[in-house]
Specification:
This protein has about 475 residues and is an alpha+beta fold. The protein has three domains: about 90 residues, ACT domain (Alpha-Beta Plaits, 2-Layer Sandwich); about 100 residues, no CATH class; about 170 residues, Aminopeptidase (3-Layer(aba) Sandwich), CATH 3.40.630. It is built from 13 helices and 17 strands. A nine-stranded mixed beta sheet has the order 15-16-14-13-12-11-10-9-17, with helices on both faces. A hairpin with a 2-residue loop joins strand 12 and strand 13. The radius of gyration is 39 Å and the shape is elongated.
Amino acid sequence: MTEASSDRSARRPQWRRGLVELAALCTAVAVTDAVAHSVTHGPSGPVLLCSAVVALLATAVFHVWWSRRHENAPPPTDTGATAPSPAGPAPHAAGQETTLWRMRTTVRDEPGSLAALCTALAGQRVDILSLQTHPLSDGTVDEFLLRAPGSLQPDELTRTVAGAGGVQSWLERADAHDLVDAPTRMLGLATRTALDSAELPLALRQLLGRCTIHSVPARSLRGRPLAEQVPTEGVLEEHRMKFRDPSGGSLTIERPQLPFTPTEFARVRALVDLDARLGQRVPPRRDVLTLPEGNEITIRRADTSDLAAAREMHDRCSPQTLGLRYHGPVGDAERYLGHLLSPRFGRTLAVETASGRLVALGHLLWDGDETEVALLVEDAWQQRGIGAELLRRLAGMAAEAGCESVYAITQASNTGMVAAMRGLGLPLDYQIEEGTLVITARPAGLPARRESRETVRIQDATGRR
């Protein structure tokens, strides 16, 4: 109803009431005149006057009684609004243990399909915290954040959704970080991407969930073309998305367990375009540390602009040191530096002396659900605690990025790397195959890295300060 029609309906009873009051007044005047004439000229005038007084008193008493009765009566009950839910109170309101779930399902694009799904979830006492819709040509993909009773099993929840018409359902555990609404989440991911080139793969994984990201350089180490030509607008397939990498290569994202939607494709393309427009960037943070003998070193983020300094450090390293780092022939080792220093493939920490000479590199390389750590310390600067400090910082960065595990590949005779991994204080898994040692740690229990810029002291390899 519009505002104008509401005003007309509100004015209509007023003029009607005025007309009724006018008619009542005219009637009262006529009756009064007739009564006065009868009292004055009729033989039973006094009797009529007394009867009128009694009638007026009786009417007044009845009106007072009727008004008080309706003022004290309770308001009418809206049974539709106050009726208790057949499913009972929400589990969190009753103090029961609950579980957060992220669920995605496809429903028919017709009126009532979403209502039927919500009603079925309410029957299981499942609370819908947020909902996103992804329209398709033949249906709608609904993505829910649910709070369910802890006793509700995943297969039972899936059957409930299927019974309400949901198909191609997907379910996984969620945490408190998923409670952020979609616009705020996208702004946070865009901020992370804008501050650091290495954040793009992590932002994409946080946006899309469990997926695999392949970043293919434009050319191989020997100059052979590797990356395929991807259109400027990107490519959307059912389980694969492709984009142009700002470095000239290609970026491929795969998710076999769940098809991509046009909405997700648009969000990913926005982040990739933002990364391409801003160019390569690294946070300017620098930490100054003091070695046991009193020398100061600086630890900072590195990128491809440090390629020349890294090659000079390679030239100063012994073949044994390079062999432990690259696990094979070292003649072509420096050809890998461009890949290792690229923020697209991970993060790199560099160690500089007071004179600005590069003496150590630590790499954190994205590898699917796992992450590889690798260290190279110049011979003259070994056994001073630099490698252990780099490894601790890299593992902390992996924990902040949400990586489930980090692993180091080295030779069984590399006691320095083994000692550094043990110095993390985390449970370790060891696998040895033909002299190659793989040490895996889970960094989730590591404390957050220091954000202070003050000078600190570090330990050497023996634990001395």
